[in-house]
Amino acid sequence: MKKLMVLAAGILQVPVIRKAKEMGHYVIAADGDANAIGLKYADKAVVANITDKKAMLQIAHNERIDGVIHPCSEVSMTVMGYINDFMGLSGISEEMAKRATNKYLMRKAFEEFGAPSPLSYCTIDVDNAWSVFCDKFDSNAILKPSRNSGSRGIAKIKQGICQDEFIRLYNRALNESRDKQVLIEQFVEGPEFSVEIIVWNGAVHILTVTDKKTTGAPYFVELGHNQPSIFPKEMIDAVQDAAVRGVKALNLDNCACHAEIKVENGNAYIMEIGARLGGDFISTVLTHLSTGIDMVAAAIDVALGKKPCLNAKGDKYGVCIRYFCPRPGILDSIKNIEVLNSEYIYESEIYCKKGDLIKEVRSSVDRSGHVITIDNNSIKAIERADAVMKQIIFNTI
Length: 397
Ligand SMILES: Nc1ncnc2c1ncn2[C@@H]1O[C@H](COP(=O)(O)OP(=O)(O)O)[C@@H](O)[C@H]1O
Ligand SMILES: [Mg+2]
Hints:
This protein has 397 residues and is an alpha+beta fold. The chain has 11 helices and 19 strands. The chain has helices spanning 14-22, 53-63, 77-87, 94-99, 103-113, 126-136, 163-175, 233-249, 282-291, 295-303, 378-391, and strands spanning 3-7, 26-31, 44-47, 67-69, 120-123, 141-145, 155-157, 182-186, 192-200, 203-214, 222-227, 255-264, 267-274, 318-324, 329-335, 345-350, 357-358, 369-375, 393-396. The strands form 4 sheets. It has an 8-stranded antiparallel sheet, sandwiched between helices. A 4-stranded parallel sheet has the order 3-2-1-4, sandwiched between helices. A hairpin with a 2-residue loop joins strand 9 and strand 10. Helix 2 crosses helix 3 and helix 5 (103-113) packs across helix 8 (233-249). The protein starts with a strand and ends with a strand. The relative contact order is 0.11. Residues 260, 271-272 line the site of magnesium ion.
């Protein structure tokens, strides 16, 4: 029996905690919130500040863990790297973790290695950002916090924007940036994809490519995903090639990766790469359903220094997730909820109840629920999910 420490124990980490238990490991789950739902599935629950690297190393050391994993989140990525470094565990180092969470360092690594990445500048302050935008960009740009996730603080900057609006959006990005740095980047038009990857002993294994649907400008919140991709092979090849080059540029090894890529005029550009399982159920649910490969088990294996099994075992489906984003207001009622009982629905959840305030969706935490559908192929799964989105009516007042 191996001892695995899971940093964070929220809803997104539950499948990892449960899978590790199912694989026969002793699981120590740590979260700052004593009510975190995943804690109850672990052998041992630790309530601690998982962003405090010294405290977490102490716990890992006392527990004599064999591996640590930080799935579907980035807040403790460098803590995980720090523990790996000190205890000589399998997985990314603190230095790799820094590059994989700081969007500025990431862009620099991509540029140095020649991995395809949009033009990007790290700004000093709002005046500098405005002059960079005016001097260096003749097309649209995007402002983003150097350190955050879930599309928090991101805003598209169109040519012709007035300076006051630019300042407002810059300050919004600044407020959301954990290290108080803001990037301004070339805006890449076109469809967006993610690539789910396991890196083991220097070999980059692509498991699948996901099509992503986002709200688009101004906030780019993810509305859903489907696997396998329905785009032409040449496009998927370009996406995969960019992802592999990006993982190599960041020098990532012995970890799961989630690469986000956009394609404009046939050219792929990396948005970012996380050295972790992707969120939004992509790695924990969708990938297993569409490829038959148990990506969560593979990520646990590599964290424990064991060769992962990347063979398809289960059936392969077309699979789609869609998120409910009702009109803002106070939720009064939800109609036709019984459609969620259909046999094509793999899983669903509604996160709000009557009387709750539904906010405008500006980041992924503002979404109100999700549904995952499966069918013989992606097109059918997408149709089923979109039908559910239409049928279920959230009345807000
Ligand atoms: N340079 C860019 N061009 C076009 N869209 C972008 C660019 N950077 C980010 N986006 C959009 O914003 C979303 C969030 O940006 P990302 O860098 O992935 O930050 P986060 O860590 O918040 O997910 C992306 O998924 C993409 O839709
Ligand atoms: Mg992202």
